[in-house]
Fold this protein.
Amino acid sequence: MTGTETTPGAIILGWWGQHLGDREAGHARALAARLRRAQGAAALAEAAVHDLARRLDLRDGTRLIRIVTLLAEVRSHVPQTLARRLGGAEPVLSSLRFQQLMRAEGEELVTGLRRAVIMADRQCNVAALGADLIFWPDRVRETWCFHYFGAAAPQDDRTEVPV
């Protein structure tokens, strides 16, 4: 962490880059594999996960598990949000499946998002995905709907983090 990361998305991107981003490094590959396979609280047994919790001042284990297990699926940080990568003129995720994802809760949401990351060639804006996973209320779902259909969300003040 450089000390300049102040938003949750920037903090998450910095953490992902340090711990998971370089899949050529053995430690990143191993941590990603353990997090992808982790069942429930097993993800909390990783020191790197607690590093993220400290950086975010996040003490909600359920949210933390959701964030790290999904970020373990991402291989490349790109400017486009996951919803933009899934939708557009030729969507890789059908409209029906996207609607199901937007209605999903709990473990069904995590499973659907994991599949979505894979369908997006494991590439998305890590900062945006991480921030969305922390705050997954209706407002985030609304923004995803606009992004999926290629439109700017009303009052969408989030900027996409450059590569």
In short: The radius of gyration is 15 Å. The longest strand covers residues 76-77. Residues 158-163 have pLDDT under 50 and may be disordered. The CA atoms of residues 58 and 64 lie 7 Å apart.
